[in-house]
Design goal:
The complex is a heterodimer of chains A (594) and B (403).
Chain A: H1 2-9, H2 16-21, H3 26-56, H4 63-73, H5 81-117, H6 125-144, H7 175-204, H8 217-248, E1 259-260, E2 263-264, H9 272-306, H10 313-326, H11 342-354, H12 356-370, H13 379-402, H14 404-410, H15 414-444, H16 450-468, H17 471-476, H18 496-526
Antiparallel strand pairs in A: 1-2
Chain B: H1 2-30, H2 40-68, H3 79-112, H4 128-156, E1 165-172, E2 175-180, H5 206-229, H6 235-256, E3 270-273, E4 275-279, E5 284-288, E6 295-299, E7 304-308, E8 314-318, H7 324-330, E9 338-342, E10 354-360, H8 362-371, H9 375-379, H10 386-402
Parallel strand pairs in B: 1-5, 4-10
Antiparallel strand pairs in B: 1-2, 2-3, 5-8, 6-7, 6-9, 9-10
Classes of the chains: A mainly alpha (594), B alpha+beta (403).
């Protein structure tokens, strides 16, 4: 307590630079992550619209391609095949890492962890600040790589060598790839600094009464995400480092027996498959680094707006832990057709299909939470329901891809594109929107416009399925991903109309995002003022003042007496009981597993 | 001009929306402010939209199904592919049922339990029975899926039949070459150091080793000639000296191949481009290498795919069951062909790296094989002018890649 008092005395006026630029306050850092993530997302989204133009109307000329890419990469408005691959690559990299890892975890771990566990700030404000600045630096390098003469990295977001290792193999593997590796190295540093901080904060700085089994599921999800990140990102770092060595210093970790551009390379003894193992050892946990925060946000939003405790709180925690554990032993399912030992393939099939069980538990628990609820359809709630839908729609096709035998014929086709965009991309994006709509009042003290929120939701949700659902059929027709054009194969001629439909949905969906961006910035400046607890929520962040202050709570830290899900508890006047309300005599704590 | 107009339109549009927002919020303020929570009518409206969406989503599913299923891959043209298609159908039935049921519950509950002030939600925190139910039921279904899946997988990846026909598929940026083992039914040795304009797969035979050694010696000699003309101590000198050393090391390796056993195996190998033939009803064992980057040999009509990785050999075997001619009839498409596609991103022309696969009766296959030139014939010295031809081909390759 003495420490708290001292802390408050230190609360002095900050300069503009201290407050908005080199801030060590978790709330400001969260906004910095969010806005940087949004800028990156817009870049990634514009890229997808550009390559969808080519895929929908193959080989046709569009002035907008020329407008964005210039005469070099889109002469006469027709997209260059190398630039097509570059767009696909950077779109993937930005969306997976910059939006859904940095943007999602960075925003919500920073915002929610100190707020919901009842801490004044992160364990280390300085490391937290560093984490953001590494993220920004890495974003700048990644965007900067778009402007080098030979184009940005173009070997796909998975950057498999030798394609990515040899500048002779494609123009994007020159300077563009070097910058990609530099950017990703900075990104990994940012992720690790952030992740360590999140883990330490959750373990050490929980307020009095906040036991692990009273933590909101959002915190459980963000905590486990950080643990996964801390364990897997270093492997990607070493993977990238070895690739840098192969590119710059003539080592042969990933290269062997190569004859390219009329020359024999002298590197022998390495294996590109080693890269795939290292990459996917991060790459698969990465899927859950993206997905778990999304599930955490959804748990909060659904419980709050259904006015009902999340169903099976302990089972939800168990599922998160099971998913996290299994995520480390399934990476081989990305490599079934690399010639790996069939027995090993069988093992990976088995472990991968096991993940379906905790995932199913989560989906069923969300649905049961809605059952006999009292549902308020805020935009955040709509996005959360949409998230459950995409999680199921995309999840079920995972059962086919996890099956090594069935994977043979759909591997690297549009079936895979549809699967991971729906289950990982859409789910995480839906949840991120839900999170922004839900916690916007906490971030800016204002409300977002609900009518625009509804319009944004329906346009986004319908277009999202319009884009990705039909792609399953492309995959089942055998259309490979990352093809600049399908017109070389007569067997794909009948699918032209499907591609056109997908492109129209993609472009309408992309334009619809400007409704959100407009609403976001308009509400920051002109939005209606928020009340302290606008959604009638139980968690601790809603006990802080509307105008955010340094240290979060003006007086002593709140004390926690119950779990976060006492919604509509019988015998209570209101339909929510904040965590700070002491248990009455004889009252049982709902989360304690009675 | 168009650009300016569009920017103008965007700016004006944004301003118009801003004004409309102002009007809307002022009107709302007059009515006593906008509530943070959705009004009853908003809740009702959105809850009904949940049902509308559910119906729309299923309708879209059905429409896609009927519209595009006719254009999916035709029936499998390989033995194991038929089993795979059945397994796929079985899995699809299960996941479609799960998908439909969960979506009905999800959106129906969202519709039914819309907010009402007069009602409190059920305080239902957990139920061990229910949770056990939806842990064990998926587990049982998954066990079935795993068992069927692994059974198929282990059969497909089993050793090829003893009498299987061996064909090597060899990709490079951006085409494929197929190599047949010839009369001895064994593929000749090969090594990437042996690759030249006349020997695209680097096949090792006594003839090709001698030829490659001569080529390298000639190249070394010509670079050494050039070295005499460049200024000493310059960058150019360093570069050329390095190239000489590199070619020297390659030459040593090439010479060492002549002491290998079985260098005769490659003489009767057959190399073909753009299309290759396989006999119907016979097990074919494909082996894959790669010259430069990872490619993937994808033969969707046969439900077959395997990566081609530089530095290692992979394989995949299957039994084709339907000839090209039969498939033309089945699909009522006179132009139908089986294709080999590249399905691992490999560079700018990845999207048109293909080969036509002809599945034919055994007689036709044998006839076609007899027409092909053996490797020994293709590298037989065309008297003089040999070295010149080689360098131009190598030169072409470089320019093609730089394009």
């Amino acid at each position: 307590m003495a420490q708290d008092a001292a802390h408050n005395d230190h609360h002095h006026e900050e300069t503009f630079i201290q407050k908005y630029v080199f801030s060590m306050d978790h709330k400001m850092i969260s906004k910095q992550f969010l806005i940087t993530g949004m800028i990156m997302a817009v870049i990634g989204m514009i890229m997808s619209s550009l390559f969808r133009l080519q895929l929908g109307w193959q080989g046709e000329s569009f002035w907008i391609l020329n407008f964005f890419l210039g005469d070099k990469w889109a002469p006469d408005g027709i997209l260059d095949p190398n630039m097509y691959l570059a767009l696909v690559t950077i779109h993937g990299t930005i969306m997976v890492f910059f939006l859904l890892t940095g943007g999602l975890s960075g925003t919500f771990a920073n915002l929610l962890i100190p707020f919901q566990i009842g801490a004044r700030d992160m364990a280390s404000g300085f490391i937290n600040m560093l984490s953001y600045w590494f993220f920004l630096a890495s974003s700048i390098v990644m965007v900067g790589s778009l402007f080098v003469e030979t184009g940005p990295a173009s070997g796909g977001w998975t950057v498999y060598p030798p394609l990515s290792a040899l500048p002779q193999a494609m123009p994007g593997s020159g300077m563009g790839m070097t910058l990609w590796l530099v950017s990703m190295s900075l990104f990994i540093v940012s992720s690790l600094l952030g992740g360590l901080n999140y883990v330490v904060t959750v373990i050490n700085l929980r307020t009095k009464g906040m036991t692990m089994t009273r933590l909101p599921l959002s915190i459980w999800a963000l905590f486990v995400t950080a643990v996964i990140g801390v364990l897997s990102f270093p492997v990607l770092f070493s993977c990238a480092l070895l690739l840098i060595f192969d590119r710059m210093f003539g080592t042969s970790f990933y290269l062997s027996d190569i004859h390219i551009a009329g020359e024999v390379l002298e590197q022998t003894g390495g294996s590109p498959i080693l890269f795939e193992h290292l990459f996917w050892f991060l790459g698969h946990p990465e899927v859950y680094i993206v997905l778990l925060p999304a599930l955490g946000i959804t748990s909060e939003v659904i419980a709050t707006n259904a006015r009902k405790p999340i169903f099976g709180y302990r089972a939800m925690i168990g599922s998160i832990l099971a998913i996290a554990f299994l995520s480390f032993i399934v990476w081989g399912h990305h490599m079934f057709i690399t010639g790996m030992n069939p027995f090993l393939g069988a093992v990976f099939t088995f472990t991968t299909l096991l993940i379906a069980i905790p995932s199913a538990v989560k989906a069923f628990n969300y649905i049961t939470t809605l059952w006999k609820g009292n549902i308020r359809f805020t935009p955040a709630m709509l996005f959360s329901i949409a998230m459950v839908s995409t999680f199921i729609s995309g999840g079920v096709t995972g059962i086919i891809l996890a099956d090594s035998a069935l994977d043979i014929n759909v591997h690297d086709t549009y079936f895979v594109v549809a699967h991971f965009h729906i289950v990982m991309g859409l789910s995480a994006v839906m949840a991120m929107f839900a999170g922004v709509y839900h916690w916007f009042p906490k971030m800016y003290g204002k409300m977002m416009n609900r009518k625009l929120g509804y319009a944004h939701f329906w346009l986004t949700f319908v277009c999202a399925y319009g884009v990705f659902f039909p792609q399953h059929f492309l995959g089942l027709a055998g259309v490979p991903r990352r093809y600049y054009s399908n017109s070389e194969f007569p067997m794909f001629d009948e699918l032209v109309s499907l591609n056109e439909m997908v492109s129209i949905f993609a472009i309408v969906g992309a334009i619809a995002q400007f409704v959100f961006i407009f609403n976001f910035f308009y509400s920051i400046f002109k939005g209606q003022k928020s009340t302290q607890n606008p959604w009638g929520s139980n968690t601790l962040e809603w006990t802080t003042p509307v105008e955010p202050i340094h240290g979060n709570w003006p007086g002593p830290l709140p004390e926690v007496h119950r779990w976060a899900y006492d919604y509509s508890k019988p015998g209570k006047e209101q339909d929510f009981v904040p965590q700070t309300v002491p248990l009455e005599e004889g009252e049982l704590d709902g989360g304690a597993g009675h | 001009m168009t650009t300016i107009l569009i920017i103008l339109a965007i700016v004006l549009g944004t301003l118009a929306i801003l004004q409309m927002m102002k009007v809307y919020e002022n009107a709302a303020r007059l009515k006593g402010g906008i509530s943070a929570l959705p009004s009853d009518s908003e809740n009702k409206y959105q809850s009904k939209m949940m049902l509308v969406f559910l119906v729309g989503y299923f309708a879209f599913f059905a429409w896609c199904y009927f519209e595009y299923v006719p254009y999916l891959l035709p029936e499998s043209a390989s033995e194991h592919g038929v089993a795979l298609d059945n397994l796929l159908a079985f899995n699809f039935i299960i996941i479609t049922v799960v998908f439909v049921i969960t979506h009905i519950f999800l959106f129906y509950f969202a519709f039914k339990y819309v907010f009402s002030k007069d009602r409190k939600a059920e305080y239902f925190t957990h139920s061990n029975k229910l949770e056990m139910l939806w842990t064990t039921v998926p587990a049982i279904f998954l066990a079935v899926i795993i068992i069927f899946g692994l059974k198929a997988w282990l059969e497909i990846t089993d050793e090829p039949a003893e009498d299987a026909l061996t064909i090597e598929l060899y990709p490079k940026q951006f085409d494929w070459t197929a190599r047949y083992a010839g009369n001895d039914t064994k593929l000749g040795l090969s090594n990437y150091n042996m690759i030249s304009g006349t020997n695209p797969l680097g096949v090792i035979t006594d003839g090709s080793v001698a030829q490659m050694a001569a080529e390298l010696e000639a190249e070394i000699a010509s670079i050494e000639e050039e070295l005499k003309t460049v200024p000493q101590g310059g960058l150019k000198e360093e570069e050329l000296t390095e190239t000489v050393a590199k070619r020297g090391r390659q030459l040593e390796k090439v010479k060492s191949f002549s002491s290998l056993d079985n260098t005769g195996l490659g003489n009767d190998d057959l190399l073909v481009k753009s299309e290759f033939y396989i006999p119907v009803g016979k097990s074919v064992n494909f082996v894959f290498r790669s010259r430069d980057v990872i490619h993937s040999a994808y033969m969707p009509h046969f439900r077959a795919q395997m990566n081609c990785v530089p530095g290692m050999t992979t394989n995949f075997h299957f039994v084709p069951t339907i000839t090209t001619a039969q498939m033309k009839e089945k699909t009522r498409d006179a132009d139908f062909e089986y294709y080999l596609l590249c399905n691992k991103i490999c560079g700018a022309a990845h999207y048109n790296m293909k080969m036509v696969i002809k599945v034919v009766e055994e007689d036709e296959y044998n006839q076609w094989i007899a027409e092909q030139k053996t490797f020994a014939q293709t590298i037989a010295p065309a008297e003089d002018g040999m070295a010149v031809e080689t360098t131009t081909i190598v030169g072409n390759e470089i320019s093609m890649i730089e394009e």
